[in-house]
């Protein structure tokens, strides 16, 4: 026979899986009627007592961290800023005595203070690859 022929009608069937209340099989079944709606997912995301995925802030600016970069939990923006600053050996200057507030909303206003805070929270110059 070739691969295009249908299987014989007398092929053995797979054993049926018994669904018991509370079993993992029951919760995975698509027809059990227990699937949460999109509204329930949204409610779970906004409810802090039952977080589905925890919010980890960037140590530099407070935005949502994307991972552990250069020794610190940081967002993609601060990760890229720190990498470019090190690779290009950029020296920044602050126009306000080096005491600018670095938060998500204004992190791009003063590069000197942002870079200083990257170093202060523990980002490692040695972890940046040159290439």
Automatic annotation (TrEMBL):
Single GO cellular component term: nucleus
GO molecular function: DNA-binding transcription factor activity; sequence-specific DNA binding; zinc ion binding
Family matches, as InterPro entries: Znf_hrmn_rcpt (IPR001628), Znf_NHR/GATA (IPR013088)
Entry superkingdom: Eukaryota
Annotated compartments: Nucleus
Pfam families from the UniProt entry: zf-C4
Stretches with biased composition (Polar residues): 29-53
Amino acid composition bias (Pro residues), ranges on this chain: 1-10
Annotated signal sequence range: none
Alphabetized Gene3D superfamilies for the sequence: Erythroid Transcription Factor GATA-1, subunit A
Keywords: DNA-binding, Metal-binding, Nucleus, Receptor, Transcription, Transcription regulation, Zinc, Zinc-finger
Location of region: Disordered: 1-54
Nuclear receptor domain mapped to chain residues: 55-130
The protein, known as: Nuclear receptor domain-containing protein
